[in-house]
Amino acid sequence: MATDVKSSIGLRSERGPILAAIMLSTSLVALDSTIIATAVLTITDQLGGFAQFPWLFSIYLLAQAVTVPIYGKLADMVGRKPVMLFGIAAFAMGSLLCGLATSMPALIVFRAVQGVGAGAVSPISMTIAGDIYTVAERAKVQAYLASVWATSSVLGPLLGGVFSQYISWRWIFLINLPLAALAAWMILRNFTESAPRQRHRIDYLGAGLLTVGAGALILALLEGGQAWAWGSPASLVLFAGGAVMLAVFGLVERRAANPILPLWVFTRRIVVVSSLASLLVGAILLGLTSYVPTFAQGVLGSGALSAGLTVGALTLGWPVSASQAGKVYLRIGFRATAVIGSVLAVLGAASLLLVDARSSLWQLAIGCFIVGMGMGLVASPTLIAAQASAEWSERGVVTATNMFARSLGSAVGVAVFGALVNARLGGVGRPAAADLVPAVHLVFLGVAAMAVVLIAAAAVMPRRSEGNPEIHSA
Question: Which residues belong to any copy of the Major facilitator superfamily (MFS) profile domain (predicted)?
Fold first, then answer.
């Protein structure tokens, strides 16, 4: 078990240095999710390969997604600390290589290295928080972690613009090096754990099958309809091959002595429901972040900066509500909190359907903010409920499963919403505003439909008093 539970919470408490290390580690991934978007044109001006730049995002998401379940299992086997340190080191190495890249293909490969590191940093940070804080304490700790994402949603685009315009786009990646070094040092110095040191046989076959199968499926979803047609040989091979690999993976895991992704995660209602909620959250977020800027620029005629700030309302609404979610679920329970968040998401998406060519950016931003508020009230309580239902030796897998579902949902969202828009526009290079309005409204309608499904998923979440004694005591 990790550090003994203390009564005080906050950065000045006995566990404060560990919390600070978790926050700093989280900031690496949070900043990276926003800082690069503002520098795409500057990067492609120097390195070329404008047509390849979507791979900067796809390859990162792919590498992160397929490694998350593996890190979760390893964290339950050897402890959180070594896995976290490896993730920070890999992220830092990828950042250094990205900062030194001299061609677009090289930058894409090095972004994959970054993604491999991020696959450990995100879930293990949440797992450590689950280890050292009780459910009641995490209600307060969540405000600290949410502040990291809130700050990054504002600071990331600002730093990206400053670096790319006044210094060099390379510092978008190199800035991670001192942050990673400080985060690793703080974890080495302050976080101690007495993880079980039993000898485990690592399920290499299962890990390989999961990586290849999930990787093929996510890649097919990310690039289908964009890099290649949905019915193309490449798309069919990836979908079929991924499905076969995952089927074989399931058979292997049933017989494995120490499976990399235990099949019991699919038999626990709370884990399945929280993962479904996470998948829907990922799809909703990607749908809006992909098409709100397009609507703002192509229909409302705003500039790139204004469009970015508009969708920034979405990423700001999330941490604002997530910081208060703990107080809410301690008072009314996990289920009611998640239902309220889902309803907010439906209302926000419905308000976006009322936005047209005569609307203002404020109307678009307010709708995004409401959806973001809803997501903050869903994502945190559902993850914490799942964590609280698991023992120490299972918590890494549970956390990783939830976060893998969100990555998968992001890929599904890209595929579904991209297909809806392309079907409406018919592959036009630069659509007219009159055509873009109904096409993007399909995205808003899809987001609303997913939010309705989210209400149903939240409705079968356990109340605070159900399940693990830790939940009951909260």
Answer: 18-466
171 and 270 share a domain? no
Q: Please report where in the chains the tokens 């659509």 appear, as a residue.
A: 431
- Picking from 152, 173, 197, the residue at the C-terminal end of a domain is 197
d(CA 246, CA 18): 37
If asked whether residues 272 and 255 sit together in one domain, one would say no
Residues spanned by the domain of 255: 203-259
208 and 329, same domain (yes or no) = no
- Hey, what long-range contacts does 203-207 have (CB within 8 A, 24 or more apart)? 203/73, 203/252, 203/253, 203/256, 203/257, 203/258, 203/259, 203/260, 205/252, 205/256, 206/249, 206/252, 206/253, 206/256, 206/259, 206/260, 206/261, 207/70, 207/260
Residues 214 and 189 in one domain: no
Q: How confident is the model at residue 197 (pLDDT cuts 50, 70, 90)?
A: low
| Whether residue 127 is found in the same domain as residue 231 | no
Structural domain total, the chain? 3
Task: Check pLDDT > 60 for residue 52.
Answer: yes
Retrieve residue 419's tokens: 């297909």
Q: What is the pLDDT of residue 469?
A: 39
**Residue 187 and residue 220 in one domain:** no
Closest CA to 383 of 78, 72, 76: 72
Cα–Cα distance list, 468 to 18, 77, 331, 360, 362 (Å) = 25, 22, 17, 48, 44
pLDDT over 90 at 405, yes or no: no
77 shares a domain with 182: yes
Q: ∠ at Cα 379 (12, 184), nearest 5°?
A: 40
**Contacts for 278 with CB less than 8 Å, ≥ 6 apart:** 379, 382, 383, 402, 403, 405, 406, 409
Task: Kindly list the distances between the CA atom of residue 185 and the CA atoms of 18, 29, 87, 94, 360, in Å, as whole numbers in the listed order.
Answer: 11, 17, 13, 18, 47
62 shares a domain with 22 = yes
Residue for token pair 């979405």 = 314
